[in-house]
Automatic annotation (TrEMBL):
One term of GO molecular function: metal ion binding
Any matching Pfam family: malic
Cofactor descriptive note: Divalent metal cations. Prefers magnesium or manganese.
Self-association state and partner proteins as the record states: Homodimer.
Alphabetized NCBIfam families for the sequence: PRK13529.1
Keyword Lyase: yes
Active-site annotation: Y112, K184
Residues the record lists as binding (S)-malate: N422, N472
Protein's name according to its UniProt entry: Malic enzyme
A biological process from GO: malate metabolic process
Cofactor (UniProt): Mg(2+); Mn(2+)
Length: 604
């Protein structure tokens, strides 16, 4: 029976129907966006001149994925598995994403944190082939032509750009930061169905202050100290203007810029274009969703929050901003008044009027005179402030000590404690300790995955298992990006972000009234969550007047169908041959920069 045609099959990003392809023979097999390997059906083998290039058996995608998983599982460690997956992606895009989708929970930490951090640190040593667009601060005249290699105006939907200065808690990684751009785009496809061939990873090579890289003769980036100041600002602006000129509908996602630059560039460009900074906004949104779920369990409201953030970098301040905005909106008060409920602690201690702070931190500083007779370390602040929410973004392992946690629990019956630093070894506390120190009452979410914690916290001391939510940005940033791309939003507004938070919070397992459930939906539910987030974002964009796409459905169910029809999935679609002279760049496989595929021993 022929599949039923979608009512939205006419849309440019529709995933129904055949795919135009102008390639044949070996060129087709060497193009990962089109390659099906042993999955090519007989008629396509004949039509595309593949009959002598493949073994005779025609296999299903499921069979290929089973074989690929066996090969993946045979690798000796996670870094080797990460390298294997990279090689698979370079050969067969659909099979790569099918393998990830089938084993999502297992592979997530391999394709992203913490293993991706290891791959980034070793980038120049494990390098096989280029991935993404590499822009050179010393040749800014080449920025636009280098970006132009990736397609025409209609060909790019989503750009992730980094300068590699502050990567995943491991600091300055220079040109290796390109892998964080690649990884983020993998997540946008895996979690929200952004079309992989329409995504562009970019690294801005400005040099590096990492002495280990500078002294490494194998390092692939510019081997000089980071360029800063006016030349750096001009480089970023040159990139932004070129990207906007070449790909006027593209959404730009800033990733892992240094503390002093992340907020500055977001504030500069956000009013002018659809852009997003995951370290600031994504972390803030997902953390706020976890807090809202925790407040629901504890019977509190946003107006009741007393929040201490330990680690006042871009992530910590981003979280504080998101919470401040939500408190102000719910309570009908000013942002300045809402900020009084939030305390930021950084290396000097509590940020006060006597502390040197950034513009982004300034609204949260406390009057130094009121702290003149008090210590400003974490323990003292917790004892003085009596917070009901404690968040860690400090990368200081073990900072949430037993005495700190017990001091908090003394004044908060269900303390919300979120140690979010990545990777796992940098967490401020382990969930098992937080639950042990609070007799199972702490409401915990972490920045990396942890196993459920068992303890005698049920009725009459019965042993129960408490699931620990992973406060992972992937439940929110892909859906925000999907909503912005599909609505062709001219900007990403505060109301769009708040709508995204409500989308995530509405799907919290705690809504089932199970107080032992995790605060956030599981990664296995992430595509459903992304649809809900995208729906909320699109509706908010329409209400705000920033959606430029026409004929967006108004009803929830129809809008969800409209969204799902445009979400790419790892399925083999029929190939339709088109003549090269009339073919689009997509049909020629030219939407990804050309390069020689380097083979691992991956079986097609």
């Amino acid at each position: 029976m022929a599949p039923q045609k979608s009512k939205f099959g006419h849309l440019p990003l529709s995933t129904s129907g055949p795919v135009d392809c102008a390639l044949t023979g070996a060129a087709l097999l060497n193009t990962p966006a089109f390659n099906k390997g042993s999955g090519f059906p007989e008629e396509e083998r004949v039509k595309f001149n593949l009959t002598g290039l493949l073994p005779q058996a025609v296999q299903t995608l499921e069979q290929q994925a089973e074989r690929a998983y066996e090969q993946y599982a045979s690798r000796p460690d996670n870094l080797a598995k990460n390298t294997f997956l990279t090689s698979l992606k370079d050969q067969n895009e659909v099979l790569y994403y099918k393998l990830l989708e089938d084993h999502l929970q297992e592979v997530f930490s391999v394709v992203y944190t913490p293993t991706e951090g290891d791959a980034i640190q070793r980038y120049s040593k494990i390098f096989r082939r280029p991935e993404g667009c590499y822009l050179n601060i010393n040749h800014q005249e080449r920025v636009e032509p280098d970006l132009a290699q990736w397609g025409n105006a209609e060909d790019v939907d989503y750009i992730v750009v980094t300068d590699g200065e502050e990567i995943l808690g491991i600091g300055d990684q220079g040109v290796g930061g390109v892998l964080i751009s690649v990884a983020k785009l993998v997540l946008t496809t895996l979690c929200a169905g952004l079309h992989p061939s329409r995504c562009l990873p970019v690294v801005l090579d400005c040099g590096t202050d990492n002495e280990e890289l500078l002294s490494d003769e194998l390092y692939l980036g510019l081997q000089h100290k980071r360029v800063r100041g006016q030349k750096y600002d001009e480089f970023v602006d040159t990139f932004v203007k070129a990207a906007r000129k070449l790909y006027p509908k593209a959404y730009i996602h800033f990733e892992d810029f240094g503390l002093k630059n992340a907020r500055r560039f977001l504030d500069l460009y956000r009013p002018k274009m659809p852009c997003f900074n995951d370290d600031v906004q994504g972390t803030g949104c997902v953390t706020l969703a976890a807090i809202m779920a925790g407040l629901d369990i504890s019977g509190l409201h946003l107006k009741d929050i007393r929040l201490v953030v330990f680690g006042a970098g871009s992530a910590g301040v981003g979280i504080a901003d998101a919470v401040r905005g939500a408190i102000a909106t719910e309570g009908g008060i000013s942002h300045e008044e809402a900020a009084k409920q939030i305390w930021l602690i950084d290396r000097p201690g509590l940020l006060t009027t006597d502390t040197e702070v950034s513009d982004a931190q300034k609204i949260f500083v406390k009057d130094a005179s009121s702290w003149s007779d008090k210590s400003t370390d974490l323990q003292s602040v917790v004892e003085t402030v009596r917070p009901n929410v404690l968040i860690g973004t400090s990368t200081v392992p073990g900072a949430f000590t037993e005495s700190v946690v017990k001091a908090m629990h003394k004044n908060a019956s269900r303390p919300i404690i979120l140690p979010l630093s990545n990777p796992t070894r940098l967490h401020e506390a382990k969930p098992e300790d937080l639950l042990k120190w609070t007799d199972g009452q702490a409401l915990v979410a972490t920045g990396s995955p942890f196993d459920p914690v068992k303890g005698p916290w049920g009725e009459n001391g019965k042993e129960v298992s408490i699931e620990v939510a992973e406060c992972n940005n992937s439940v929110v940033f892909p859906g925000i990006g999907l909503g912005a791309v599909l609505s062709r939003a001219s900007r990403v507004t505060d109301k769009m972000l708040v709508a995204a938070v409500h989308g995530v919070a509405s799907m919290s397992p705690t809504k089932k009234r199970d107080q032992k459930a995790p605060l956030l939906p599981d990664v296995l539910e992430v595509k459903k969550v992304s649809v809900r987030v995208a729906r909320n974002v699109i509706q908010a964009a329409v209400q705000e007047g920033v959606a430029t796409e026409r004929d967006i459905p108004e009803e929830d169910d129809e809008l969800d169908e409209w969204i799902r029809e445009q979400m790419w999935e790892p399925k083999y679609r029929p190939l339709r041959y088109v003549e090269p002279r009339t073919a689009t760049r997509a049909a020629k496989g030219e939407l990804k920069k050309a390069g020689t595929v380097v083979r691992d021993d991956v079986s097609k």
